Amino acid sequence: ASDRSGSSVVFVFRGTFVHSTPQAALQILEDALLGVDTKGKIAFIGDGKDLQRLSQAFGFSPSEVTQLEQHEFFMPGMVDTHIHASQYSYIGTALDMPLLQWLNAYTFPVESRFQDLAFAQKVYAKVVKRTLRNGTTTACYFATIHTDASLLLGQIANDFGQRALVGKVCMDTNSSVKHYKETSQESEDETYRFIKELLNKKYPLVKPVVTPRFALSCTEALLSKLGAIAKNNNLHIQSHISENTEEVMLVMNQFPGSESYTDVYHKCNLLTDKTVMAHGCHLSDEELALFRETGASLSHCPNSNFSLCSGVLNVRNVLNHKVKCGLGTDVAGGYSSSMLDAVRKTVDASKVLTIQNPKHNTLSFEEVFRLATLGGSQALSLDDQIGNFEVGKDFDALRVNVAAPDGPIDLIQSDGPKVLLEKFLNLGDDRNIVEVFVAGRKVVPFASEKSD
Ligand code: GUN
Ligand code: FE
């Protein structure tokens, strides 16, 4: 057991905790005690047998400890490393075309509507609430090109208590929609304004992220400017890379001086240890090596990769190259906003590769659990703050009841904690997520249902 004696503890839970470490995809702590301090950080995690000693060291009474029920456990909150908040407006529809046709036919026309702040408010409140309820404690969002609506997304995430990276999308070329495009100058200026105004709000859990949509939507001049902005202000960067083969071919045509798609971003200083790139289905091993060298990470978005018939990312190969990797829903290319779906589709994608090649080393559910939690925190360079139940990290956690009444899971015999986790990951939904904590604050159930 480790602890930080002296800090004052505001609540303590006793029961089963499951999480991941860099060494162990799944660590199960049975009859553990976990205390959270006034700053929402984990003050200690120890053995239930040490109740007396811990209660004296941290100044709480054993009677204040909340005991979990028999089929309950705590797990770290899930990290959605790639989701388009604006596309929540048409989730579950329009999946009948490949990527580039889909962008022009559905995505750009819908995203252009977010200059209307009332529409943005409605959609953004719904996506933040839905993802929180589904157990996404941290989300890395794309908004749209509209600065004020993007700022509103930051405000809504803050109001509901979700940890969020928020990006104002940048695009200065190749849009099918006349008004859904910026000049390079506008894109640069508005990115500055977005960053400055969001940072001025001093939301404790919300950060801006520099967001070139993808190489095909940006001129080289704009990509370079955005790389410089990120570097000079030490900011996160997000984009898309190597999602489908037609896209890769067009990128090589649009940037004839580059050796690869990855090289396009690298030349513009867009690959850093605070960069997360979505998809990467068609990256070469050389490109993965460049990710590894620069510290850039990948967001694996299997629902979207299947739904738009983009490709199947070999996550095993990504991990073998020691590239940081998290999971993303990629709403609305992905039709589910739930990270549990991303977990299941990640296993499915790995099994597709095993069907194609029986020698493929299929991802285990424990490894995929780690990708959804600790892996996501690493991919977003937040693993000093979140991702597992280490002392000193923020308490971002889900209280899961596998036997929730009216829930989707029937327990037949008395299962151990590892099987309970496996059943939750494969069969569970929001009915099993009875409480959600972000930075020690209970954010689900919602305090009020006012802003819809
Ligand atoms: N590439 C560029 N824009 C997008 C987008 O909105 N969704 C997906 N899946 N890929 C993209
Ligand atoms: Fe995307």
TrEMBL record:
Gene Ontology annotations for the cellular component aspect, listed alphabetically: cytosol
Keyword Metal-binding listed: yes
Domain Amidohydrolase-related: 74-443
Keywords: Hydrolase, Metal-binding, Phosphoprotein, Zinc
Catalysed reactions listed for this entry: guanine + H2O + H(+) = xanthine + NH4(+)
One GO BP: guanine catabolic process
EC number: 3.5.4.3
Enzyme class at the top of the EC tree: hydrolase
Bound cofactor: record note: Binds 1 zinc ion per subunit.
Cofactor: Zn(2+)
Domain of life of the native organism: Eukaryota
This protein's pathway: Purine metabolism; guanine degradation; xanthine from guanine: step 1/1
Any one GO molecular-function label of the UniProt entry: guanine deaminase activity
InterPro entries for this protein: Amidohydro-rel, Guanine_deaminase, Metal-dep_hydrolase_composite, Metal_Hydrolase, Metallo-dep_hydrolases
Described function: Catalyzes the hydrolytic deamination of guanine, producing xanthine and ammonia.
Family: Belongs to the metallo-dependent hydrolases superfamily. ATZ/TRZ family.
Assembly information from the UniProt record: Homodimer.
Protein name in the entry: Guanine deaminase
